[in-house]
Task: structure prediction
Amino acid sequence: MKQTTNRREVFAWAMYDWANSAYSTLLITVVLHYIQEIVLRQGGDAVYAFGIGGGMLIASILSPIVGAVADANRSKRRWLAGTAFCGSLAAVAMALAPPDKPWLVIAAFVLMGACFELSLVPYNGFLLEVSDEKTINRISALGYGLGYIGGAIPLVIAGLIFYFGPNIGLENETAQHRACIVLLGLWWGLFTLPTVMILRDRDARPQKTDSLPLATRKAMGQVFHTIVNVRRFPVLAIFLLAFLFFNDGVQTVITQAPTIAIKTLGFSVKELFLLVLMIQLIAMPGAFAIGRLADKLGQKPVLMACLIVWAVLLVAASMVNDKTTFWIMGAVLGLVMGGTQSVSRALMGTITPQRHAAEFFGFFNLSGKAASVFGPGLFGLIVYNTNDPRLAAFSLLIFFVFGGVLLSRINVAEGRRQASRTGC
Result:
């Protein structure tokens, strides 16, 4: 790993977390409520869950290809720009689509989610170029920390749109929802600009660049070759499998918890805004604090502790029956949410050969997204058949148990040696 850190590049890299976090916060508030209560009043909760899973499934198929092509052509910046701007345009298209044409809305919704996930492949690949072994935990946490601010601000703006909507010509909830979804797209696209204007691939581009079809064929061959030879990176392989399980649980809890709040506890949209805003504000210092703990205590033990907290939260969620307890659970979730994600990303970086950064972060996304259809799918199926979101939440415990068992088996020091030995 290169031992150079450029503050300007670090800031530009972290700004993409600021940009895309509008998607993360408005997805689980405005978009969720728009689909479940306006576009599809019947079965909207299941469609929302399956739509999340569908976007992740598309991303899981394309992530390793995007990563390998970005590595081969030294084009991480171009792929980041393309996927991010496509996602922001899909958000605007979703808002402009008539609510009485639900499948047009859902198509834009799935495309938006797929682009969000795909944009993280080159973005995560850049982490190894803007950090070194001493700074990777802090820089990863910086991204998530800025992300929580960048997600909180549009959430506040959206709340104001709902509150003052009638005074600014948005007289009904449908118009207010659509305006907030436009805000999502514009925020995402606008604040991506500093990232793609400043970041550059460190290595020079090849003199002759392959066409996309040829590069894709070569990339698929390279991906297959990596899978066949995954025994060369046994620690990385076990971590990817562990991440497949526990990240599926994390992402499903984040995207589906509002369903519990609305359907079981009777949260209003305004209460949901305040709940998610509280989680965002707590998650920012939480990401920094857990990043610091990872520096002092090590990435693996801190990540294991986070998974235990997630498991306890799911058990509590299966029994929650009042809003006050749910607010307390939301605060605890905020503390571990950013730390789990940032330490996972940093741990992946420490055991990844730098030369194959984008390719292996493609597998990182593949590990995270290939099975991510199962978490939302399982949640949606249980809610559909039992009408009990609490039971659906409890079922997610299995992802954290399997992920934690696999994570306990990895040797981080050996993973670093393997990455150094094979990353030349």
